[in-house]
């Protein structure tokens, strides 16, 4: 590994570890308090299970970890580091199969990505980051301002376009979002774009009329380009906790989500929600956001995430 790669890797690790520190320190402290002076009897194991559930890891995952911790150690003592090691192992086992890099299929021209998610989840930031990464790789990138509800969303996307050198296809606020998608695909084809990222309006998953509009965008994209959208990314805000599980369900049904991006893991002590989602839905996880900076949106690495959440170096 070169020095630059090495320092890049270290930078990623320290950002991930500090981003997940709220979840990790609440787990670490809780585990230390639990097992330092107590034997692993039924009451201690139940308290450990509660602690893991409070971190939003989910009931089935918490139960499996507790079973492993208790196995062969009934009424014995265990070191807090060993409990954290067992947590990291179990979490890595769950996450390894879903950790998936986001790859542009160059045989699809344009490769069409649809970005979905509720308001404020971090969609625009994710689009900007992906656009800048792919531009740096020499790809011709276009952005479609499909969030036609808010003038500010269109402007925000234009700023990202100017910053990254990606063309932005937009219509005035209030226009039909499916119409913007239509224009964008036509133009992306005509200009030979490699990638088209389509933004959509943030909407709550319980607003049926808004979800119907999203369905229409998907329909138009499919009709215009068979096989598209090639990726439908759901951006989830980790701070919403258990509600993220229902967002995955509804957006998958309406828009056929193919992968997940989870942002704001730095803003919660319950980052275990990502593990609960992986366990329940088994959808690919592409990226995680652990801060507001550009470099805080990182490719998702199962082992690093598992160790960081368990507070291991
Ligand atoms: N702390 C933290 N903030 C983040 C992260 N990702 C995004 N944000 C912030 O969250 C806010 C919302 O991000 P946007 O990208 O504008 O979200 P959006 O989903 O496009 O929102 P709408 O345009 O309202 O639909 C911004 O202030 C971002 O800087 C993260 O991982 N951690």
UniProtKB/TrEMBL annotation:
UniProt-listed CDD domains: FtsY
Sequence ranges assigned to domain SRP54-type proteins GTP-binding in this UniProt record: 284-297
Organism: Aquabacter spiritensis
Xref: PROSITE patterns: SRP54
Compartment annotation: Cell inner membrane; Cell membrane; Cytoplasm
Entries under Pfam families matching the protein: SRP54, SRP54_N
Protein function: Involved in targeting and insertion of nascent membrane proteins into the cytoplasmic membrane. Acts as a receptor for the complex formed by the signal recognition particle (SRP) and the ribosome-nascent chain (RNC). Interaction with SRP-RNC leads to the transfer of the RNC complex to the Sec translocase for insertion into the membrane, the hydrolysis of GTP by both Ffh and FtsY, and the dissociation of the SRP-FtsY complex into the individual components.
Alphabetized Gene3D superfamilies for the sequence: P-loop containing nucleotide triphosphate hydrolases, Signal recognition particle SRP54, nucleotide-binding domain
Topology versus the membrane: Peripheral membrane protein
Enzyme Commission number(s): 3.6.5.4
Name of the protein in its database record: Signal recognition particle receptor FtsY
Keywords: Cell membrane, Cytoplasm, GTP-binding, Hydrolase, Membrane, Nucleotide-binding, Receptor
Entry's Gene Ontology BP terms: SRP-dependent cotranslational protein targeting to membrane
Lineage: Bacteria, Pseudomonadati, Pseudomonadota, Alphaproteobacteria, Hyphomicrobiales
Domain of life: Bacteria
Alphabetical list of InterPro entries matching this protein: AAA+_ATPase, P-loop_NTPase, Signal_recog_particl_SRP54_hlx, SR_rcpt_FtsY, SRP/SRP_N, SRP54_GTPase_dom, SRP54_N_sf
One GO MF term: signal recognition particle binding
